[in-house]
Amino acid sequence: MRLTSETIEDVLDLVLVEAERSLDLRDVGSIDVYALLLLDLVVRRARESGAPLRVTWPESPSVRRWMTAMRFFADVKPGLAPRPGSQPITLIPIVSIAREDDVSRLVGSFDDRLSDRYPIDESPRRHFLRILLELFQNIPQHANATGDVLDPHGIAAMHDDGHSVTLAIADKGIGLARSLGLRSSPGLRPDSPGQAGLEQASLAQTGLSDADALRAAVFDGRSRFRDPGRGHELERIFRLVRSWEGAVVVRSGSALLYQSEAGGDVVDVAPFPGVQIALSIPRAVFGIGEAAFGEGGVESRGDPGFNEGNEDDDD
Amino acid sequence: MTTIEISQFGQRLGTRLEGVAAHRVLLAALDGLPPDGQLVLSLRGIDVLSGSFADEAIGKICQLLSSGIHGNRTLVVASPSADLVEDLSDKLAQRKLALLCRVGGTKGTWRVLGSLARPLVDTLELLNKRGSATAKELAEALGIPPNACHNRVRRLVHLRLVREEKIDVAAPNTQYRFHAIVE
What we know:
CATH architecture of chain A: 2-Layer Sandwich
Number of helices of chain B: 6
Radius of gyration of chain A: 19 Å
Largest interface: A-B, 24 and 28 residues
Mean pLDDT of chain B: 94
Low-confidence stretches of chain A: 186-204, 293-315
Strand order of the largest sheet of chain A: 5-6-7-9-8
CATH topology of chain A: Heat Shock Protein 90
Shape of chain B: globular
Oligomer: heterodimer
Mean pLDDT of chain A: 83
Largest sheet of chain B: 5 strands, mixed
C-alpha cells in the first residue's frame, strides 16, 4: 500500500468522517512527502483534541527508517531526537515554520541543501527560492490571522523520488475560506491581526465555500487584504509550476485542487483545518536528469539518492 | 541622485517583515532628497528578490510617489538581470504602477517594470530619447492629436516616470515642457 496525495484521503476519511480512533498502517510500503505531512498533522490534531489516535506504524523497516530520517517521529512525538546519521537519505526533513523572522534563514538552509546535492541551474533555483519565500511566510502571516488557533503547526519538507522533486508545506491553521472571510468582515482590520476583536472574524460569514475560496486564492489571486499589492502569490506559483510541467496539490478545509499535465479539478474531501500544498517539479527543470531508479522507485546504483528507505524492499 | 544598495538588507529578500524594515530606510532616503532629486535602488549583489519583499519595500514607495506627496522626486531601479525584477514587476502591475529599471549594469538598457500601456511606453521612450519636449512636439513626432498626447504625458507625470516644467505661465493656458528622468 502506498500513501500518496490521493490515498491519504482514505486515511483522513477514516479519522475525520468515520471517527475511527485507530489507524493500521502496517502494510504501508511507501509514503510521499505530502502524505507524510498530512499524517503528521492528523496525528497531532487528534492528540490535541484529547482523543489520540492509536496508530500501528508501517512494518517495513525501510519505510520506518525513512520516516525517522524525515524527522516524522520527532515531530509528532516531541522529545524524540532524530537518529544520528539518518539525514543523508533524505532531501529536506520536516522543518517547523513558526515565525516570519525565521523564514529567510529556513529558505537559506533549503538553498544550501539543494546546492550541495545538485548542480542546480541558476534560473530555476532563483524561481524556486522565491516560491519558498512566499509559501513559508504565508504560514506566520495567515495561518493564525484570527488569533484563535492554539498551534497552526506549519511544517515543510522535500523529497526527491528520482523523477520529481516534491515540496510539501502544511499547516492546520484557519484555512483559506476563513482567511478570505477576514476581508469581508465589517469593522475588522485584517492589516492588524493582533487587534482586539479580531477573533470575531472566525464567525464572519464569508459566503465562500472551501472550494470557492481555493479557486479564488489560486486562480483569482484573492487575499484577505484589500491592499492591491497583496495576493496573487499562489496564482503565480501555480502558473510557474504548470509551466514547468509539474503537478500541484492544494488542500484547504473540505476542498482539494489537483492539477497536473493531465488536467485537474477541485474535489470534495474530508474537512481538515489549514492549508496543505504539494508542488512536484520534474528534476529536469533544475537541470538534473532522472535518477537511475529501479522498479518501484528503489535506486539501483550510483548516488545513494533520497528515495532510499522509502520503499518497501522487504517484500 | 542618491543610490541605495538593496543588498544592505540581505542577499535573499525576502519576507514582508523584512520589506517593512527596508521601506523605512528607503522612505527616509527619499525624504532626504532635494525636491527634484532621484533615488536609485541598486540590486547589485542580490540573489533573490521576492514579490512580497519587493512590494512592501519598493511597491509601496512607488504608490506614495504617485500620490504626489513627495513632489517631483523620482525613483528608478538598477538591476544586473531581468529575471531578478520579475516579481517586482508583477507587484507593480498589481498596483497599476510602473517604474523605470536599468537592466545590465551602467551601460544597460532601460525598461519599464509594472503596468504601462503600449502607447504610453512609446511616448516615454520617445521622450527618453529626446531628453525633453513639449506635448505638442511629442504629438507631432508620434502622429497623434495633441490632446491625446497631453493625456499620455499627464499619466507619465503622475507615475513619476517623467518630470514637468512650467515654461509659460503668462499664456492663457500654462505651457509645460516635459523632461526625461533617465539618460
